[in-house]
Design a protein that fits this description.
The complex is a heterodimer of chains A (141) and B (492). Chain A is mainly α and 141 residues long. Chain A is 74% helix and 0% strand. In chain B, 77% of the residues lie in helices and 2% in strands. In chain B, helix 1 packs antiparallel against helix 2. Classes of the chains: A mainly alpha (141), B mainly alpha (492).
Chain lengths: 141, 492
């Protein structure tokens, strides 16, 4: 679709706001609707739109499959790592109070923030990986 | 610190290791790392069982949220036993994994294979350890999704259809389970199993309770491959990579049986399930029919893996039969068989896996003369096969002994007789393999080597265990007895 003017221009206009909106949904999730899962999906949607317009090859130059694979793992590690940190600080697993024992609500806030970030990273990366998996498949004859 | 956090570490260590495998990537390194994790889990599971036997129930509040509000991990004799079983199998299979995975999985996918293996392991352990009904569903999905991938990695293209069939059936089962749990939550407003067991009795007269129980039970019976809901199992076991077959056969259905025990006995209680709804009147005949139908199907199979898969369905029948007696002896028999069958089926599938490595096929026709060509592997097959039949001095005998004892105790001697006669069918299907392997000449004279040492280590640890626990029954039977008493509320 690279040679079709309207989708290309509309895509160029829309992809940055979509990415930005994903970040908004991610980080505003603790005050309004949203959170890691939704944000990850929205973020991945921007990448999907880019691929539809500019092709798989062009996308893979920016979003490298190897990096995506690492991000899938990193998100989970961030989540579980947050839990392990509280474990090492002498609290129960995923007890966010450990992150700021002086002000438990702040600790809880920080904990949820980190955990949701992990969710967001993994969901976005998994969505992109699945899309690449399908898009990269050659047609069977 | 480790002592206090043992329940959560048992889950988190393999869970964190799975993504680390993706980062490590290098084949041998990933294998070594995964093995280390499995052995560490085995150590922690044994420590946990010892502690539970000494101190009684251990409870762990995740995130510091106290039950029933937060998610609780609750370990008693029954699930400590299941946790130990799953981690024994996972750890012992890692020796076998090195040559087997190198042979059957393409080199680029090794790290992903071990990631899925560890995730499946995490899921199974999680199901067993949690005291939260919804958490069971979450871990069930983790283990199921990873097992679909593991099965689909089989060399045969039919592995894909087998995996898809399992995916459809497994999802159906999981959906039914979650509908059941959802209805339970709607009625009581709690998801904690212990809390549910206290609040549910007030709802026993409502139709919602019936519907919730019906959905839950059918879902669980699909997951544990109870006859006639077992159709996904033979294909899945047949086309999966050898290691996966052995792992799933020894753990996945066993953990599902544990879930069944937990929900029927602890959460709903025997009064509702067996006195009001008479589930036993449904379980016992179905188990018996299942034993006979699956054993007869096993006799007619031409593929050894498939034959053993059908035999697994029959053996699940024995476990459910024991549970259906609703007596301490019957449950002891069921739980002991759960453990024993895991050992012997894993040993059998490992010897098949070794043969597949050397012959490239698990078709019975290719196994001619295998007794002479791979004597050590076939010896393990025969010993574990004897256990499947239930010959004295093997584990199979112990479990059948308790099952028949339970039948006689209840005064149902025809059932005892039927259970005994069904062993003859096992004799027939094991003998078919033995006959081809030992009494027929190989078609070609090509030299077939014995299985590599790593495979033999796994195989013989498990075969040895089937003999050891057949003679030394203190550990298995006494733990199973305590678990049975706990489920029935007889002993604390």
């Amino acid at each position: 679709m690279r040679h079709q003017g309207i989708p290309r221009v509309v895509g160029k206009w829309f992809i940055p706001p979509i990415l930005l909106f994903a970040l908004y949904v991610q980080f505003h999730g603790d005050f309004g609707p949203g959170g890691g899962f939704q944000a990850g999906v929205i973020f991945a949607a921007a990448v999907v739109l880019y691929t539809l317009i500019f092709g798989l090859q062009a996308t893979k130059q920016i979003v490298k499959p190897r990096i995506i694979e690492i991000l899938v793992a990193l998100g989970v590690l961030l989540y579980a790592g947050t839990g392990l940190v509280s474990l090492f600080l002498g609290y129960n697993f995923l007890d966010y109070t450990a992150l700021d024992p002086a002000a438990p609500p702040h600790g809880q806030h920080l904990g949820i923030f980190l955990v949701e970030l992990g969710v967001g990273i993994t969901v976005a990366a998994v969505m992109i990986a699945i899309f690449f998996g399908f898009a990269g498949r050659r047609r069977l004859r | 610190m480790i002592d206090m956090h043992l329940p959560i570490l048992l889950i988190v260590v393999p869970l964190v290791s799975a993504p680390l495998c993706v980062l490590l990537r290098q084949k041998t390194l990933v294998w070594a790392f995964a093995s280390l994790v499995c052995v560490a889990s085995l150590g922690m599971a044994s420590m946990l069982l010892i502690r539970v036997l000494e101190e009684g129930v251990i409870s762990y509040a995740i995130g510091g949220w106290i039950a029933p509000w937060g998610i609780e991990y609750r370990v008693d004799t029954i699930n400590a036993f299941v946790l130990l079983l799953v981690s024994i199998i996972a750890a012992v299979l890692m020796f076998f994994a090195l040559p087997s995975v190198a042979d059957e999985i393409s080199g680029k996918q090794h790290y992903l294979f071990y990631t899925a293996y560890l995730l499946c392991f995490t899921g199974l352990m999680g199901i067993a350890i949690t005291g939260d009904a919804f958490n069971v569903f979450v871990f069930l999905e983790i283990s199921s999704l990873s097992s679909y991938t593991l099965i689909a990695l089989g060399r045969d293209r039919r592995a894909l259809t087998a995996s898809y069939q399992y995916l459809i059936m497994g999802t159906l089962g999981a959906t039914f389970i979650v509908i059941g749990i959802g209805l339970m939550y709607m009625m009581t407003g709690t998801l904690n199993m212990f809390d549910l067991s206290e609040r549910l009795p007030a709802m026993f007269e409502t139709r919602t309770a019936m519907v919730a129980f019906a959905f839950l039970t059918v879902g669980m019976l699909i997951k544990l491959a109870m006859f006639p809901m077992h159709m996904w199992l033979p294909n899945a076991y047949c086309y999966a990579p050898s290691l996966v077959t052995a792992f799933l056969a020894a753990t996945a259905t066993k953990v599902s049986i544990y879930v069944f025990l937990r929900f029927t006995f602890t959460v709903w209680g025997t009064e509702f399930v067996f006195e009001k709804l008479n589930l036993d009147a449904f379980l016992i005949p179905l188990s018996l029919i299942g034993i006979y139908v699956a054993s007869l199907s096993a006799i007619y199979q031409t593929n050894v893996k498939r034959l053993l898969a059908y035999s697994s369905v029959a053996q699940i029948g024995y476990m459910m039969l024991g549970i259906g007696f609703v007596s301490v002896t019957g449950l002891t028999g069921g739980i002991v068989h759960l453990f024993n069958h895991a050992l012997m089926k894993a040993a059998l599938f490992l010897s098949v896996g070794s043969a597949v490595l050397r012959l490239g096929s698990s078709d019975l026709a290719d196994w001619k003369g295998l007794g002479r060509r791979m004597p050590v592997t076939m010896a393990a097959f025969v010993l574990a096969g004897l256990s499947l039949i239930g010959v004295p001095l093997t584990v199979g005998f112990i479990s059948k002994w308790y099952l028949i004892l339970a039948a006689l105790e209840a005064g149902w001697w025809p059932i005892a007789l039927l259970a005994l006669l069904s062993s003859l069918l096992a004799v027939i299907y094991v003998w078919r393999v033995v006959e081809v392997a030992y009494f027929q000449k190989a078609d070609d004279d090509s030299n077939v080597q014995e299985a590599p040492l790593m495979m033999q280590i796994s195989m013989w640890i498990l075969t040895g265990a089937t003999l050891y626990f057949g003679i030394q029954t203190d550990l298995t039977v006494s733990v199973a007895q305590r678990a049975a008493g706990l489920l029935l509320g007889v002993t604390p």
